[in-house]
Specification:
about 120 residues; mainly alpha
């Protein structure tokens, strides 16, 4: 999903760079940060799998605590990443609004969606 999101941003860069190249670069930066955070956040899910697979090395009763800590950390990572999921919508919406070949209402809704996140 994250790699497809990055490809989408590149396609939007090619499509909307004529409208405002600086805003398209800002869009790419927000998407790249989001993808990087998504990949680094997946570490917590992999850590849970490792804990459950290698549970024979963990003292009894501690497995559940460590598992829940990783799930909480994953949830916190999603919360931080949701900021960037919203931030990329504002330059995208403004580019759609000012491009002229896409409906302006769509651009306005995309900019409003930024604040929804």
């Amino acid at each position: 999903m994250a790699l497809v999101f990055l490809v989408l941003a590149y396609v939007l860069y090619k499509l909307l760079s004529e409208a405002n190249v600086n805003l398209v670069k800002l869009l790419l930066i927000f998407v790249a940060i989001s993808v990087g955070l998504s990949f680094s956040n997946m570490r917590h899910k992999l850590d849970v799998l490792t804990l459950l697979y290698k549970s024979r090395y963990i003292i009894s009763g501690n497995l559940e605590t460590q598992t829940m800590i990783h799930f909480e950390s994953y949830g916190n990572g999603i919360l931080v990443n949701s900021v960037f999921w919203g931030l990329w919508l504002f330059p995208f919406g403004y580019l759609v609004f000012s491009s002229g070949f896409l409906p302006k209402l769509l651009g306005a809704f995309l900019m409003l969606g930024c604040f929804g996140y």
